[in-house]
Amino acid sequence: MISKLPRWVWTGAWMLAFIAGIVNVVGLLGFQHQAITHLTGNTSLLAEALAERDLAATLHFAALIGAFVAGATISGFLIQDSALQLGRRYGVALLLVSLLLFASVPLLQHQSAYGMYAAACACGLQNAMVSTYSGAVVRTTHVSGMFTDLGIFLGHALRRLPVDSRRLKLCFLVISGFLCGGIAGTFAFNTFGYSALLFPASLTAAVSIAYGLFRLRRVRAKPVHGDAA
């Protein structure tokens, strides 16, 4: 069970889910009408393309999935741990996410699939940044696991078994962030087109800077060994 969730974890999880919700809905509303932030549907589409021997579609979906995995690989290289912990290089990872989203905008405006690959790489990087916190799996680019956890909690409640209230709140937090991001992304895409992605790109950069400042403040506030009591 989750024993403690710092405020920065709550805030960061909601913001990242909100960003992912925007990115995914832009992909769904865009010229190829395909999801970007999660791979289940794209893997099924890859299977369909393979079965139908559609080489172009096969290469496209393989590249889309590969871009997401590449982003996760970059995250693993930078952060080097799956456990969420203040002090790791999340700021650098978030800055890369921001740059990839910025780069995707002109590509998508020219209806280039490379824009989708850049956005998928950004989402893979973001999703892999946080794997677990106090035993709770935290995913911010898709909500299947969160809805699964909600179902498990409901089943436990019906059997009058103990329910981890903090983990339940975390599920609602991520789901609400992703949903709100999708709503905001729909309005933004209908108004600005692919330039809507400039908003999550800028927001991610702001979160990166905020995390860096927060981390710096914590380091400066930490007492130095050997100081007088």
UniProtKB/TrEMBL annotation:
Residues of the signal peptide: none
Keywords: Membrane, Transmembrane, Transmembrane helix
InterPro entries registered for this protein in UniProt: DUF1275
Parts of the chain that traverse the membrane: 12-35, 55-78, 90-108, 136-158, 170-189, 195-214
Domain of life: Bacteria
A Pfam family assignment: DUF1275
Protein's recorded name: DUF1275 domain-containing protein
